[in-house]
């Protein structure tokens, strides 16, 4: 199994989610981390708080947000969750709005998720990967892209 | 006595120091290898970057750049973290 598919635990992938705004979208991704046992609700709150404090800096590429917060006791295990949105939402990012894919990250420390992020960078480094994700309507299709 | 050049230090910065900055660091290292340039690249959160003050170049997404003003480093905004062309162009301009 790829590191990405291992990081995406059961219940961490949701497609075609309806979100009213950026916070709703981030909370939907947080719910996936919580459902897969990777964090407590406090971590989801921390991801939202980081964006309130620092702005939409986690919108790292066109259409793609990667919310995350610092390693803390609220992280139960390093992992990721993925939400694709039915309708895109604005995060307030000048260049990369609107967001269609939200990939939340929870890390237990500063080191153990580095290979996972390298795999993540490899996938999203290829042109059109966000669109490939959006064309998936089931978890199985998404996991096949990460295989 | 042999004169050694100290490699340039680049720090990729984000809010938590675990996500965006790590991706920026990885892609900056890729770009440096391609360009044949030598530099150390680290990932850090804003506070650490503000305190260490020893980097020649700071890399961050635009919203974070605003928080890095007043430091003795050149600050470069990267809009698209996976766009190696953008990173390459901006790093080349800053380093050469």
Gist of the model:
Chain A is an alpha/beta fold. Chain A contains 6 helices and 5 strands; from the N terminus they run αβααββββααα. The mean pLDDT of chain B is 90.
Question: What are the defining features of this structure?
Answer:
heterodimer; A: alpha/beta; Mannitol-specific EII, Chain A; 39% helix; B: 96 residues; alpha/beta; 4-stranded parallel β-sheet; globular
**Which descriptor suits the 3D outline of chain B?**
globular
Radius of gyration of chain A: 14 Å
Number of domains of chain A: 1
Count of helix runs of chain B? 4
CATH topology of chain A: Mannitol-specific EII, Chain A
Q: Determine the number of helices of chain A (DSSP H or I, runs of at least 4 residues).
A: 6
Query: Could you describe the largest sheet of chain B, including whether it forms a barrel?
Result: 4 strands, parallel
What level of helicity do the residues of chain B show?
40-55%
> Tell me about the biggest sheet of chain A?
5 strands, mixed
- Per CATH, the superfamily of chain B is Response regulator
The count of DSSP E runs of length 2 or more, i.e. the number of strands of chain B, is 4
| Overall average residue pLDDT of chain A | 95
> In the CATH classification, which architecture of chain A applies?
3-Layer(aba) Sandwich
The domain count of chain B comes to 1
Question: CATH class of chain A, anyone?
Answer: Alpha Beta
Radius of gyration of chain B: 13 Å
- How would you classify the quaternary structure? heterodimer
Q: Would you tell me which CATH topology of chain B applies?
A: Rossmann fold
Give the second-level CATH assignment, the architecture of chain B.
Answer: 3-Layer(aba) Sandwich
**Quick one: how many beta strands of chain A?**
5
